[in-house]
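Quick start: load a record and inspect it. Here is Amino acid ABC transporter substrate-binding protein:
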Amino acid sequence: MSRTAKIFATVAVAGLAVSACGGNASGGADDSSSGGGTLVIGVDLPLQGASKDASEATVNAMQLYLDQTGSKAGKYKVKLKVYDDSTAAKGAWDDATCAKNAQDHVGNTEEVAVMGTYNSGCAQIIAPVLNQDPTGPMLMVSHANTNPGLTKAWDSGEPEKYFPSGKRSYARVIATDDYQGAAGAQFAAKDLSAKKCYILNDNQTYGQGVGKAFEEEAKKQGIKVLGNQAWDVKQPNYTALFTSIKSTNPDCVYLAGIFDNNGGQLVKDKVKVLGDNSKVKLIAPDGFSGYPEFDGLAQAQGAYITFAGLTATTLREDGGPGAKLLDAYKKKYGADPATSYALYGVEALQVIMQAIEKSDGTRKSITEQVFSGSGISIPADKSIVGKKLDISPKTGDVSVRDISVLQLKDKEEKFLKPWPVS
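Running the structure step on this input writes:
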């Protein structure tokens, strides 16, 4: 086969090459038959726009973990190749770029698995392409995709349409939005005594999913759902939208979406028309977590945010591998990661590395380690999240389903309480 190199524009993140790039069809290790070689793990994240800080922190944390472990998974040397799935023009993840990255992952000869994506909509594009890789399927493990349909029945044709080969190849280390959306609604009802809530979604996969879950649980909790409406991300302002919402007299607004989609303007106009967040409570899912721009907004102070996992603050207090990595990260970079999802990026990396260690170094074998037998299990004393973590070989979902409730105060997302999920 031809090994002609393709050259693409790159930017630097923690000394790594970052691109939307690839090569040719891949089989696995450079020298797996003689006991070793170097394997590449692709990292697919939005590195431009509002998600830039969170994505860079995730890459940095993963590389720090590799440095600490000698970049070894069994007999194989491991390195990262970072792909940008966003565009400068959009300032967020981009459909066409995700589609291109999918082809490039499959085409890169040394790449054996993918860590990512951050956005569920991008994963929906990439997962079925990796699943049809003739040398695979190729494993994909996400640290942040929360849309339920990627692994279980949710919308029409899900999750089967992401696995056209008939074999599973996608897993994740985070709780899903059927839990997160429900937790947000339970918190609104039980802790905030909300009676009437209006839902705004960003009309994307993630936003629609978490909004649907919030709405269903809110009704069970006795909250009157006044509406579930999409906001137009291209609007210069939302005063007319919130003026129409004001007539319904809500005591709660739930923003089901990502901050990248003009969330700053949305929050400003919510406060301008409906009042501050002590008057009409503002609740958002983790699509608004980890954005310094959001945290710094005067109008965002007092907002509640759910996070589909444990926060860096909690993990540091609990001690263990997560706390040690956080301390090392802070020593190297001068601050904690911009997002708690950075640690889940490391957790996803742990899953991939265990699969590599148990495999023969080929894509097919690596994926089979996750989706056959007992699957992947990481003991609590090794797991970055400090809990025993199992990946179901039937679904690719994780056994640990933590939800944290945060409140934005003094420009910081402060841990408020854990929320039990069932």
